[in-house]
Amino acid sequence: MRAFASDLDRTLIYSSRMIEQDTQQNYELIETLDGKEISYISNYASELLQKVNKEIYFIPVTTRTVEQYRRITFFQTTIQPEYAITSNGGRILKNGKVLSDWSNRINASLEECLSLDAFVRQLENLITGNWVERIRHADYLFVYLIIKRDHVSSEELYHLFEWSREQGWQPSLQGRKLYFVPNPVNKWKAVDYLKKEIGLSYVYTAGDSLLDYELVYQGDCGYVPAHGEVLESYPDLPKTTAHGMKASEEILDSIVVDLSLKKESVEQKS
What we know:
Elements lengths: L1 E5 L7 E2 H4 L7 E7 L2 E7 H13 L1 E4 L5 H5 L12 E4 L4 E4 L2 E2 L1 H11 L5 H11 L5 E7 L3 E6 L6 H13 L2 E6 L2 E6 L4 H12 L3 E5 L6 H6 L2 E3 L21 H25 L1
Parallel strand pairs: 1-5, 1-13, 13-14
Antiparallel strand pairs: 2-4, 3-4, 6-7, 7-8, 9-10, 10-12, 11-12
Helix pairs in contact: 2-9
């Protein structure tokens, strides 16, 4: 059995800020919060993703918390994945319910790391200036900062990134959000767990951020949108030619074609 395990934001779905850069796209609103429009998917990507979901497992793999993932109406109505990975791999949902076995494994592994509270205390002491608006935790697994990007120097970010890696935490800057995630909370580790649990033989993967590096690299066939942050550190990863919503369509198109070719090959042999 095959699967497509993919990051969501800036890979398959896009914020209003991203779609403003491409006025030629036809898209649908799939997430709101307090009356505000949050996320969209292109009509063509929606059509392709539904095709993929009918043929193989589609597994959303997101840094969003369980609550934030559930806000995306598209995955509650149009497509209802049997499995979804949230919280950057820290939680796995099966038919909407958190798998306790995986959560217990994650919680045990975190005992070997610098605790979230200790990490935040040290981080706050290292930050200079007023470029951090808020510090939040996600399912008490990792932290992210809402920042003013124009107010922070690349040198300060570099030192914070290096310090966090020394603590065993992975940094990632995504728009106005600066993430710090402990190494055990890893998207690919969660996918690999499901790969063994449900007997997946081949996994297509996609992602755009540094937090998606292992997901893309370890997958049997990985994709990075051409606008992906991860390409700044790993430029040799396979990438799309298109940017923005067109990148999601290119990824899904490629998978649909590959699945069709595999199907034809099996039919010819039989």
